[in-house]
Design brief:
- By secondary structure, the chain is an alpha/beta fold.
- It contains 22 helices and 40 strands.
């Protein structure tokens, strides 16, 4: 089938998403802009499209900054001040980094003198002050000036501008919430969180500044002080993270125990117009429905978000004061126009998990007896009670079995009639190894080669009959993904999986699947350009599921065009604490909002025959010690908070691919965790896709505290299907063969895992590409892309045994360098690249090698502490 990817429509959909994700926290008549505007802040020239690391380094032709966006929108700009900033910025360039964790979280501000500000105020009607923060993999945000707090330069800017201007607007180009005490300190007139909006973020921000009514809502609570946050005292330990706040994360804590410590509540956001919301409530079998009549009572077009919360009785378990159970967004309403939103809430959404038997139903979701109050409104604080119902007797909604519970005792927060107390978390009673032995798979015996090919599945043989042909060695090969930058798939992508060896691919005709980094767009290590999407925090702030599905349908077609089968995203970890460095990749402090937005993204991707890999499964809520940290957390908190979004993505969003984390949950690395990968994911939720590790993850057994990168036997027995990644699936040294010999893993388990991978591949474009039936996709409306060259293109004429010094290249974040090697004689050559990377262990710098236009190798260098490492390969050159 012939399809078209219209790049201009893609840009417009992303721009619409940015507009809808911008959150207005204050507006005393300063917005929308009127008259001439003076733009302050050096980051007007350097918009942050996303954070850094694997989730952000998308190669783009252009990023629209905010001042350019204002110009394109027709705004009147104080060009004299803009020129002053441009000249200073050229003389004082921004600091870049060669790795993921070395880039400063903010940049130094241009010093302002009183005369410059007074001169700008004399001719301009209002001032826009831009404050920007990046974030990224391998480092946390910090409780320091220039990170969570304003820098001295930013404070000075606001003080001087406030003193001179009648209207002061602050625009926050950040991936995460920051300290907001500056609003009161400087009597700021308007504040917008524009987040990181991808490559068109400046355009969407300008739209809102110029009059498009903001309609985003906060996905996180903004506390008065950072120290007021419930996880403050239990965040950042590199060895163990004790989740003592239990289920009381974000607004669940603040609305229950500390409402006075909230500056801006969850779900809050202003508009340029006003709305009247009139709810009606009705119960029915299995839940309730709230119908809300929404009318635009103001003078501008706009959209509103209706949010539904439930207050359950305290009972024996203790509950949060309010829990989000439903939301919908209106279409754009003109002044006087109205619509009705119907929000149906099933009882499972407001049930609670009993992990200790207090209700008489241990390890079950229950509805405790008592009155349930339903609240409807436009944020968690202002929502009003619109109805209630009574559960006469405690009922079991879903009976499960204990899984993933802690092995060590710790105190967790609980609630009783509104008061806070601590109790001991319930410990694990049955080990995951016992559960594994009780649920061993039954599969056909090994038959040897029967002549079946992959395409014969469903016609000449079943999938199990096909797999029964494969030797133990071939089953081991399927458990290994290759990369990064495997030449077997699209250049510069993160992995190849499935038919990764000669026998699997050429004899059995198993297709090779391809993954690429996300979630904010396709990251190609070889410099290929792609579309940079808005970050997860902005996406969740839209509260618009339909819009996000539409955006990711474009992304899905872009994946198919680039022969990529799954993007590594959406990121779904909870914003447990504001200083987590990767919060920008994730959605929210709330698991329901997280799950719904992830399901919306997946719906868009699935509509184009590709998918996303939901990650990081689970409890990857800090960067400090992320490779090895042990998250010590109760089973109830896992079920209700840290697993809930993943459950929604699987059960509602039909997720087909999952990535586990680097760290541990309750003492066991997730990459080899049977309770997580089998008991819960597959046994309880019915997941039938495939599970991969994070890249170069560690794995351990319960009786081994230390992890290993090579214990693939433990990984496979847990039903984590594929290890990402190894250099060569055929020859990789790991524990699989020995595990088969000693019973650590069985052939039946490897057969089961291979079935998961092959079933996945049958539903991908990898299968149709191999069969020659893939869609033919044409991209229109895109400017001709850059070749990725920074500076002069250099040529090197070499003979045999030549050495080239490439220390001159710029390896800062986002840069791409290309140089050409011209061989004197045709033949087979060995190429060795020696390099060192100062960054952390899992940061990546890549060198891609092409011969005669064909990708041969991508040598990926992880952090080496500055030590040099060599990578080699052979190829023919003519």
């Amino acid at each position: 089938m012939k399809k078209v990817l219209d790049w201009e429509k893609y840009i417009q959909k992303a721009r619409e998403t940015v507009r809808e994700g911008i959150v207005c926290l204050e507006n005393n008549g300063a917005l929308p802009l009127r008259g001439e505007t003076a733009v302050f802040g050096r980051m007007q020239l350097h918009y942050y499209k996303s954070g850094t690391g694997s989730g952000g380094l998308v190669n783009v032709k252009r990023v629209w900054n905010i001042i350019d966006g204002l110009r394109e929108a027709g705004a009147s700009i104080n060009e004299e001040l803009a020129g002053t900033y441009k000249k200073w910025d050229e003389e004082n360039p921004v600091i870049k980094s060669a790795g993921w964790s070395g880039e400063p979280l903010s940049q130094a501000e241009m010093p302002l003198d009183d005369e410059t500000v007074r001169k700008a105020a004399a001719r301009s009607d209002s001032a826009v002050c831009i404050i920007a923060r990046t974030a990224g993999e391998e480092q946390e945000n910090r409780a320091e000036k220039g990170s969570y707090y304003l820098s001295d330069g930013e404070e000075d800017m606001l003080a001087k501008v406030r003193n001179a201007f009648d209207k002061v607007i602050v625009v926050l180009n950040t991936g995460n919430i920051i300290d907001m005490s500056f609003v009161k300190k400087y009597s700021v007139d308007a504040v917008l969180y524009v987040w990181h909006g991808g490559m068109v973020g400046g355009l969407g921000a300008a739209d809102v500044l110029m009059g498009h009514s903001p309609c985003g809502k906060l996905p996180d609570t903004i506390p008065v002080r950072l120290e007021d946050h419930p996880a403050h005292d239990n965040f950042g330990d590199p060895a163990k993270a004790y989740y003592k706040e239990d289920i009381f994360v974000g607004y669940r804590y603040f609305e229950t125990f500390a409402p006075e410590k909230v500056l801006y509540p969850f779900g809050y956001g202003l508009s340029y117009t006003s709305f009247e919301c009139v709810p009606s409530f009705r119960t029915h079998n299995g839940g309730f429905t709230v119908d809300v009549d929404v009318k635009n009572t103001g003078s501008a077009n706009g959209k509103e978000v209706v949010q539904i919360y439930v207050k359950a009785p305290s009972g024996n378990l203790g509950k949060a004061a309010r829990v989000l159970c439903g939301f919908e967004k209106t279409p754009e309403l003109a002044p006087g126009e109205k619509c009705t939103l119907s929000i149906c809430v099933p009882e499972y959404s407001y049930s609670s998990y009993d992990d200790c038997g207090k209700t008489g139903y241990p390890f079950a979701y229950v509805l405790e007896a008592g009155e349930y109050q339903v609240y409807a409104g436009t944020d968690v604080r202002s929502a009003k009670c619109c109805g209630s119902f009574t559960v006469e007797n405690t009922r079991c909604i879903k009976q499960l079995s204990q899984a993933l519970a802690p092995y060590e005792s710790f105190d967790r927060l609980t609630e009783h009639n509104g008061s806070a107390a601590y109790e001991k978390a319930t410990l694990q009673k049955i080990s995951e190894s016992v559960r594994r032995q009780e649920n061993m798979p039954v599969v056909p015996e090994y038959t040897g080669d029967k002549g079946y090919k992959f395409a014969d599945i469903g016609t000449k043989c079943t999938i199990d009959e096909f797999i029964a042909q494969l030797s133990d060695k071939e089953l081991c090969e399927i458990a290994r993904g290759e990369g990064c930058g495997s030449p077997k798939v699209t250049a510069g992508t993160t992995s190849a999986f499935g038919g990764v060896t000669e026998t699997l691919n050429k004899h059995y005709l198993i297709p090779i699947g391809c993954t690429a980094d996300g979630p904010a767009g396709l990251r190609f290590d070889c410099g290929t350009q792609a579309f940079a999407l808005p970050i997860g925090t902005l996406i969740s702030s839209t509260f618009n599921k339909k819009l996000i599905s539409e955006l990711f349908a474009f992304t899905g077609r872009e994946l198919a065009f680039n022969k990529v089968d799954c993007i590594l995203g959406p990121g779904m970890n909870i914003h447990r604490y504001p200083l987590n460095g990767r919060n920008f990749e994730y959605f929210s402090e709330d698991p329901f909002l997280t799950g719904e937005m992830a399901a919306a993204e997946l719906a868009g991707l699935h509509s184009e025959g590709v998918t996303g890999t939901i990650k990081h499964f689970s409890s990857n809520n800090q960067e400090t010690g992320r490779h090895t940290v042990d998250s010590v957390v109760s089973e109830r908190a896992l079920r209700e908070i840290y697993l809930k979004g993943f459950e929604i993505a699987v059960c509602e969003g039909k997720a087909r691919s999952v990535m586990t984390t680097y760290g541990k949950i309750n003492g066991l690395y997730t990459a080899g965790n049977y309770d997580l990968c089998t008991a819960i994911l597959r046994g309880e939720w019915g997941f039938d896709g495939f599970v991969m590790t994070d890249w170069w993850a560690q794995i351990n057994r319960r009786d081994h505290a230390e992890g290993s990168h090579g214990d693939l036997a433990q990984m496979a027995s847990a039903q984590n299907d594929v290890y990402m990644v190894v250099a060569d699936a055929l020859t990789n040294k790991d524990s699989l063969e020995q595990g088969l010999a000693d019973g650590t893993v069985t052939r039946a388990e490897l057969h089961r895992n291979a079935r998961n991978v092959l079933k996945f591949l049958r539903g991908t474009h990898a299968y149709s590409r191999m069969a020659g039936t893939a869609d033919e996709i044409t991209v229109i409306g895109r400017e001709e892309l850059d070749d990725g060259v920074s500076g002069e293109l250099r040529y090197f004429k070499v003979d045999t045994d030549s050495e080239i010094d490439i220390s001159w290249i710029d390896t800062s974040n986002g840069s791409t360098q290309i140089f050409v090697i011209d061989v004197a004689h045709p033949g087979k050559y060995n190429i060795t690249v020696t390099a060192g990377v100062d960054s952390g262990e899992l940061a990546q710098t890549a060198v891609s090698i092409f011969s005669m236009g064909t990708h041969q190798y991508t040598f990926t260098y992880s952090g080496t502490g500055g030590e040099t490492v060599s990578r080699s390969g052979e190829m023919f050159c003519f």
